[in-house]
Structure formats: C-alpha cells, structure tokens
Amino acid sequence: MSEDKDSAPRQGMSCTRALGITVAVLVGLPLLIVLGVVVTFAVQRSVPEDYPTVAPRTTADRAAARSREAYALLGPGPVIPAGESNSFSSDMCYPGGLESAADEPAPGSYALSHTWDVGGVPREDAVAGLERLHDALVADGWRIVAHDAAPGDAELVLRAEHDDEGRQVYFWTPDGGRLRGGVHAACAFDPSGEESWDVTAGLVPPALGRG
After folding, report:
1. How far apart are CA 33 and CA 48, in angstroms?
2. Contact in structure between 156 and 130 (CB atoms under 8 Å)
3. Which residue, 58, 71, 163, 194, has most beta carbons within 10 Å?
4. Residue ranges of the alpha helices (H) in 75-179?
5. Residue 53 · residue 191 · CB < 8 Å
6. What pTM was computed for the model?
7. Helix axes 56-74, 123-139, angle to 10 degrees
8. Strand 156-162 relative to strand 86-91: parallel, antiparallel, unpaired?
9. SS3 (DSSP) at 157
C-alpha cells in the first residue's frame, strides 16, 4: 500500500515535469527562431554586398556591345539612333535575402541597362533571329531561362542569365511587329562612391544596325 501511495506523487511530479518541459519548448522555440532571424539579419547587414567596383561608363560600354551583337544576330534591319528607342537607364541595387526586408539599396551601388525597340519586324524574321541569338548566347556561356517561339500569333520571348554579366531579355509582339531588347548588367559599385539613382549622365549609346 505504501508503495502505491509513493508512486502516485512520483507519477504526478513526472507529469508536471513533462508538462513544464513541453511548455518551455513551445515558448522557447519561437523565441530561438526569432533570435536566429535577428542575428542572421544583423550579420548580413554588416557584410558589404559582393558587387564588383566598375565605372558606369565601362558597364555601359559592355552593355552596348552586347546589344550590338544581339541586334546584328536578330537582323531587324533599320538603324536605331541614340534616343528614346535606344537608351541607357539605371537604378540602385537592393540586397537579397533577409536584407531585402529593410527595402534599402546598397550604398554606392547601381544597376545599368541598355534597351531598344524597333517596329515592323515580321514574325518569321523574329523567330529566325531569336533562334540565332539563342545559339550564340549558349555558346558564350549564358543560361537560357526562357525561349518561347511557338507557332501562331503569340508573343515571342528569349531570356538569358549570366552569373557575372546579368540578364538579357528580348521579346516580339504581334502588335506592330515590335521587337524589343534589353541588356541588364549585373550590380556594381560606382568607384566614385557617389550614391545616385541615375548614373547615366553623359552616357550616350551607339546607334544600332549597319545603316
């Protein structure tokens, strides 16, 4: 009888201890997760982004050269002078990962793009040109992430990425046979140290096409 009396309190204490441990885990685990997120965020914020330091003019020259190569392969024909349909644009770069939650650009960073567009391109010419460009990009080490050249009246798309150089995007739409292209360079730091949304001042793209 005494053993039964002793075992009851012990069982009660064991249940209480188990309940306490369960509660501690349920309360402590979310706190540990939050703490881990906070620490990771702080570490990422303290480490500068791994962007190369490149002058905007150098990046612009590279992007324009890529556009000239692509335009020649696409072969739409007309010359596109510098202007609204052949221009540079830029923005600051935003870190990825947990840092993106702060929605703050990396100081002194920039992302430069060169875009162009031309109308009156027949669908069959656009299909053939995108095929040529696709093969050239693959041979040059670019990853093709989208290539939609299905028959019919649908839009044509070609997208490629490169770890060091950024993205290239091309698409054709049946409305006016418009063919558009864009070379979007990878993020970089301006060696001048200036922080600006637009680093294209004084940068004029070359005319595209043979004339």
Report:
1. 24
2. yes
3. 71
4. 123-139
5. yes
6. 0.74
7. 130
8. unpaired
9. strand
pLDDT in tens, the chain (211 residues): 555 555 555 555 566 766 666 655 566 655 554 444 344 333 344 445 789 999 999 999 999 999 999 999 999 889 999 999 999 999 999 986 454 455 588 999 999 999 999 999 999 999 999 999 999 999 999 999 999 876 666 899 999 999 999 999 999 999 899 999 999 999 999 999 888 889 999 999 999 997 5
CB 129 within 8 A of CB 118: no
- Cα pseudo-dihedral 52, 58, 59, 65, rounded to 10: -140
Block residue for tokens 């000239």: 68
Distance CA 52, CA 55 (A): 10
Helix (H/G/I), strand (E/B), else coil: 26: helix
Backbone angles phi, psi at 121, to 5 degrees: -95, 115
| 80-113: burial string, b at 16+ Cβ within 10 Å, e else | bebeeebbbebbbbbbeeebeeeeebbebbbbbb
d(CA 142, CA 124): 24
Separation of alpha carbons 169 and 182, rounded Å: 5
With H, G, I as helix, E, B as strand and everything else as coil, classify residue 188.
Answer: strand
Q: Which of 164, 129, 167, 171 is nearest to 145 (CA)?
A: 167
